[in-house]
Amino acid sequence: MRILALIALIAALASPALPARAQEAAPASPDPRIKFKDGERYLRDLAESLEIPREEICLELSRYDCADKAFRIVLGGVDPYDIRIMQPLDQASLASPIAFDRVALQVCSGRVARDRADPAASILFKRAAGRPDAAWRDALADRLYDRILRRSPDAGERQRMAGFLEGLEARSDRSAKAQADQTILACFALASSAEAAFY
Known about the structure:
Elements: H1 2-14, H2 20-23, H3 39-50, E1 59-60, E2 64-65, H4 66-70, H5 96-117, H6 134-149, H7 155-170, H8 176-191, H9 194-198
Helix pairs in contact: 3-5, 5-8, 6-7, 6-8, 7-8
């Protein structure tokens, strides 16, 4: 043990000092209140942002509430100490890696379906008059960031979203359904992001 400690000490002394710039503290987060969102909090946030009643926002098999019934455990709705789970499971549940994505995709699909059913009251999906152009893509990015992340995108984020939408458009036609699908996938990209999960 002493040999390992001595090697670590020698390595630390022998390594060159970091430049002053590298030793500076990282910039503070614009919103330092990182909070874990369990399924209920995540769905409440999306229900409010996308103006869908909470009880209708995500129903698995059209019957079971995503946060309360279908994915309650994998979305963090159970405190392991309360039910006396003292060690991790040997294997993750089959639904663990996909539950968050399934919820995000279902919520985005539901919002776009509502927008298509009532275009006058649409929130996310607004059909382009012809083939979607740069203005349509920028407006969609602004709506998505405003609704889901509750902020404006910066120039780089807007450009990445536009590139993503252009890539989707190259694989589809000019129909309203293709534009709706692009909106769903762009919504899903933001709704399933780390920022949406923790802020």
